[in-house]
Amino acid sequence: MKKKIYIKTAALSVMIAAMSLLSSCLKDHRYVDFGGSQPLVEFPVAAYSGTFNTVGLVASTSTTPFTVTVNLASPTLLSTPVTVNLAVSQTALDAYNKANNTSYTILPSTAYTTSGLTLTIPANSRTGTLTVNVNTSAIPSTANYVLPLVISSATGATPDQYNTILYAIKVKNQYDGSYLANGTINIPPSTSRTWSSRSKTLATIDATTSETEAADLGTSSYIMRLKVNADNTVTVTPSPSSANQTLQNNGTCKYDPSTKTFTLNYKYVGASGDRTISETIKMQ
Question: Is the pLDDT score of 18 beyond 50?
């Protein structure tokens, strides 16, 4: 009987201690009472993914849009709209470059348009958006442009710690991506070799031109450029960085947009004569 009394007494002591601890926590000002929090506005992408984010846009002769989203963090939805003012911040970009030893430059104002830098989070809503229309033809593929935005102020809410976002704008053409290649190279006088399902990456040079390894010679720095013409024929030329500068068409070279396949016949000059290549490169 005494053992049962001791057990009950111990259990009661634990309950009393727990209630005391809970009471002290509620009185402790180190604990935030979210019920009384003021509405805050933030870039949700910055909160979840960090300040620096890359926006990949397909090269186009017309402007290409992307969306900037601002989130409202509050205990309950608001019955009135919230106006959020954004600003382009060179200071934010300078701070990022200094902290990360990078050299990004601000996106030129001639390379994009917006309807303004003010957006509205409607009543009874959590998010508001702003559309940025980018002139991709004004952005070289090698450019390191960033659009740095900050929430400068808001009506009906306060900017929180996630009030800065840096969008790195990268332009790619429709051919940019991962491919599998099958091909044959013929080497005079009588040697040949083949490759099957060889992984290749086409990287954007401009809206119609991409760069990739020639044949199976990437490790030898044989790099070619593929320009898709208006009639879907393809012009093969050497990259300026290629170890061989004689790469050129040698028969039918075309692109099939329905299957996203390059069918190529090209050649380059070697010590024993022209090396001829027949190859198909299909997007994965």
Answer: no
